[in-house]
Structures are given as C-alpha cells and as structure tokens.
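User: I'm putting together a small comparison set for a docking exercise, and I want a reference complex before I start. The sequence is below, and the ligand is thymidine-5'-diphosphate. Could you produce the 3D structure with the ligand included, as structure tokens?
Assistant: Of course. I'll restate your input first, then give the structure tokens for the complex.
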Amino acid sequence: MAKEKKAFVCADCGYQSSSYLGKCPQCNSWGTFEEKVLRSSESVVHKTHSAKAEARPISQIQYTESHRFDVKDTEFNRVLGGGLVTGSVVLIGGEPGIGKSTLLLQVALNCNDSKILYVSGEESAEQIKLRQMRMGISSDNCLVMSVTDVDEVIETAKDLMPRMLIVDSVQTMTSRDSDSFAGSITQVRTCADKLIDFAKLYNIPVLLVGHITKEGSLAGPKILEHMVDTVLQFEGDKNYGYRILRSIKNRFGSTNELGIYEMTSYGLTTVDNPSKVLLSQRDEQLSGVSVCAALEGRRTLLIETQALVSPTYYSSPQRISNGFDIRRLNMLLAVLEKKAGVKVSNKDVFLNIAGGLKVNDTSMDLSVLASIISSHQDVNVNNKWCFAAEVGLSGEIRPVPYIDRRLNEAQAMGFEKIFLSKYNKDNLLERYKIQPVLIASVNDLIEQLIK
Ligand code: TYD
Ligand code: MG
C-alpha cells in the first residue's frame, strides 16, 4: 500500500505546501489552496504513465509529419502552423465581445465538407442560428448543441465522431465529477482534462474558447495553458474593426505567426494585405503623422503613428497612448528633452497607433518620435517617408533586424525614403529603389525633419 499524505495544493499551478496558504508563493494567486490526499508515489499535477519509456539514439527516431486539417481560413491555418493537427487541443483566448464565437462558428461553417460539432454553453441554438444567418453562410455538416455538461458533450462527440469539436467556452462547462461551481478553477481543469483525453484518444481536434480576466490572463487555472497544445489569443480594440489572432504557444508550429481579420457586419473577413488597409488614405501632408515599417511576428506592417503635442493646462501634463506602451512613450519624451533639448515636459502628449493595433516591435520608436517632433514643431513628415529603428537612452538610433523585409514592404507600398539606424548600413540597401536615410541620433532626425 502506498503511504498517504495530506497536503495543500494550489489549484492554479500545482504548488504544494504542508499548511494552508492564502496566497500562492509560486503563481501569486489568492485563495487557490485546496487540501488533497497524496499517495507517496503520486504527483498531483502529472499523470502517471503505465508504459515504460525507453531511451533511444536520436538518429534512430522516425519523424512523421502530423496530419493537418485545413480549416478553410488562410489566417487561421497560418497561425496554427499550416492547419489544425488532428488530435490536438487549441485554446483560444480573448476578451468578451472580441469575436471568438464568431471566428469559430465561421470556421465550422466554412469547413462544410466535414462534420463539425459546435457546442455552446453560453448561447442557445437559436442565438447561434441568428449569428449564422448574419454571416450568410450555411452548412449541413455543422452540428450545433447548446449544453454545459461536459460528459454529455463527450458522449455526443463519441457518437457523432466529428472532424473537429468546438467548445465555447471551457469556463461554462461543468462535470459530474467535480462539485465546484462552473468557472471555478477545479471545474475548468476537470472539464479541460476530459476534453483533452477525448481529443487524444479519438484523434479529434478540440478547439476550446477561454475567457480572459481583466488583468489579461486566461481566466481559470494558469495550468490550462500548460495542458493544451496550442494557445491562441484573439485581440483588437473593440472600437476598431481589426482583430489579430496571435499564437502564444504552439507545440506544432512557430509562435511568430499572426492572423489579421476585419470584423464586418457579416462576420470576419481575412486581411491579406494589412499595410494597404492600415495606412489611412491621405494625399495631403499632415503634421504629427508618420509611418513605421514594423514587424509583427513574421509579417511586415506599415503602420501609421499619430501624435498630438499641445500646451498643458494642468500641473502635470497628460500622457495618453493608444496601442503603444506608455512607459516607452515617457522614455522617448525624456530622451527628446534631455538629448535634443526639445521641451515637452510642459506639453500634453497624445499618441495613437492607427487601426487600434498593439504592435510589440521596438522599431516603432523612431516613427513615434518623428510624429511627436512633427506635431511639436508643426512641420509635416513627407507622406512618402517611413521609419524603422529603435531609440536608445542616450538618444542614439539603434538598428532593428529583418531590414530586407521592411524595405520590401515599404517599397511595394510606394514609399520613397526609409529612415534607419546608421548601423543598418550594409550592401543589401543598394539593391532597393527606396532610398535609405541612415541616422545616428535624435538630433539627426530633427535635422532631417525640419530642413
Ligand atoms: P462574439 O463572437 O460574440 O464575441 P465573443 O465570443 O468573443 O464574446 O462577437 C461579438 C461582437 O461582434 C458583437 O459585438 C457583435 C459583433 N459582430 C459583428 O460585428 N459582425 C458579425 O457578423 C457578428 C456575428 C458579430
Ligand atoms: Mg462568445
């Protein structure tokens, strides 16, 4: 008989403690400790495997490409790494109202030659029908079920054997094996566990919708992210139509992939050439506007940054940023004031990244700074110019990677000059029609903008 031991276990991350703790020292969650009986040989988090593992030389291991299912959506396929791997479990997170249900129902309807089971614990079948009518696509192979009992979902799925199972959302599911309320950590984990087992056993891919908390993490156990094969995030500013599907974790592909959609009145449409739609249609030159040749994941996006610098009426100036890290904006303003003597500490600064996209590329720095200088000095930035460089704390302009991709995209979009760091000088630049302007400091930038 294995020896039994009692322990308090964090339901979020699996941390074990001999006494009850209010806050988990590992994942900082509150009130997640539960008393558990552990057998000495058992770990609470990891399942024990019955088959004996064997060490083999890596050269003798056979690799077979996993079978992928085409979900009939170029962006979704791309983000998954070339289609949905059969038997894999994908978690799609996003804020309420961002379009997760729309995206998945659309995928289910588009795959009209395969049987897809779409389970919703949030909406009635009539509500789903309403959404389908709005999208204007239909499929006889899309089976809809409104239920919250996960055991019932799995039983139905075993009978139907669909090509794909969609569960919207994992937080609404409950299992008979857990008496916690729906959405609680133990309940979410039990349901996810059952669905994952189903996916692996029957080799049917499962797409799970997961809600995101105010803090931006997936609600429910953090451990959910570790349990599934792929975690995707659907994001965007609700005031704009653009949505980004980002891969955060992918056991079957790169996490550098990005899908771009636009929410229309008849569902989501894929955006194949993002630069074209992100650049506002303008012929006239405006002050406070410049364009960055940014890289998000593997995609080059030409994005407009807009700044407004105006005298402040308050004791401390306002700094408001949309789509750009506010701390980085403050840092750029400090550099501008200290290294180039441009007084901005008595000015309100508003910054906006067009399209409501959040881009995590430091190459945005130079364009943000150009927009600020342009608004501050009231000089226009030529609308055939674009920017791509990082700005350092001493006002130096630092190089960014993948210059060839940025040059290609900027040239294709009709830009004539691109501002880069002088350290980006290499023979590559000569091959392009677009003219590089290599600069070393913030002062060089100001000089170029106001000459
Ligand atoms: P939804 O998919 O319900 O979001 P989630 O499942 O992430 O909570 O989408 C919600 C929003 O999308 C809602 O405000 C309405 C809007 N929408 C459209 O603009 N066009 C459409 O065709 C559909 C179906 C929804
Ligand atoms: Mg929904």
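The chain is about 25% helix and 25% strand. Confidence is low (pLDDT under 50) at residues 41-49.
User: Thanks, that's exactly what I needed.
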